[in-house]
Structure formats: C-alpha cells, structure tokens
Give the backbone structure.
Amino acid sequence: AAAVFLLGTGLLNFVQKKTTQIRWEPLSYFITSSFVGTASMQILMLLLGFLNLYYPLTAVLVTLPLVFLSYPAVKKAFQKAPQTFKKIAGEGPVYEKAALIFLASAVFFAALDILIRRGLFPDTLTNDFANYLPYYQEVLHRHNLWPNQYFWHYFHSRGAGLTHLAILLTD
C-alpha cells in the first residue's frame, strides 16, 4: 500500500508541476494518490508481464525502493489524518457526523470481512482455487502474461498485476 501511495504521490506532484496547482485536502490527496499509484503499478506489471520479466527479483527491485522512499510521504499523511478527521467531525450538523461514523464503520467492517473470509480462511466453495490458481501458477512458471494453456484466463486475469506482484513477493 505504501509503495502504490508513493508512486501516486510522485505522479501527482509531477502533473501538478506541469499544470495549475491544486489545493488538496489530506484525505482526498491520500485516496487519489493511492488510486493513481495502483493504476500505475498495474500498468507497470502488465508491461513486465509482456516483457517476460515476472521473476521474484524483478518484483523486489520494483517494490523495495518504493517502500523505502514512501516512509516520509506515509508519515506525513498519517500526521495530517487526525486533523482532517477533527475538522470533518467538528463542522456541520449532527446528521453529517452520524453519516461519517456510519460510513467509516461500514468501510472498517467490510475490510474486516474481506480479511477474514478471503485472507485468513479462504473459501473453497466458490472454486476460486480450481479456477484461477492454475493460470497464476502457469504465468509465474513461464514468467510472462502471454496466452498459455489456460488461454481463457488471459482475457480475464492479465490485468491482475498486483496479484501477480503479491504472489512473486510471497512465494
């Protein structure tokens, strides 16, 4: 998460230097940077996959510098987060505060649900393992995204760059 945030921050800063300056609220800057960084990392992983460069060393070389360089930006975002939440919570009517608490709770419990159902106790009833796992294994075995014996997954899963990156880093 820190790596994609830093990548997004760098790209947004580059674009801002070329265009007019945008005054960002800290929370919207964090969210926008994360989305821009995720999209950029997906494109990078897609290119690496088509260049036959899906190796663990490549994944480490792409990720490690971003993780180390992201520390100041992530620290700054977390320092500004309480101020932003205090500002949001301090202004406006009670129903807006209640809506904010409700939305924050919904996001927290949705993330917790995903962590428990998919991360800690993967569900074998939906047949995800039998469906996607052979394609991911073949991609990592061949070190590329080009069509293989599971060619139908090429059209669905070649854009799963962050999934491939996670597998390369953890396998």
Remarks:
- The first helix runs from residue 2 to 18.
- The helical segments are 2-18, 26-50, 56-69, 71-90, 94-120, 128-142, 151-157, 161-170.
- The two ends are 19 Å apart (CA to CA).
- The chain has a mean pLDDT of 80.
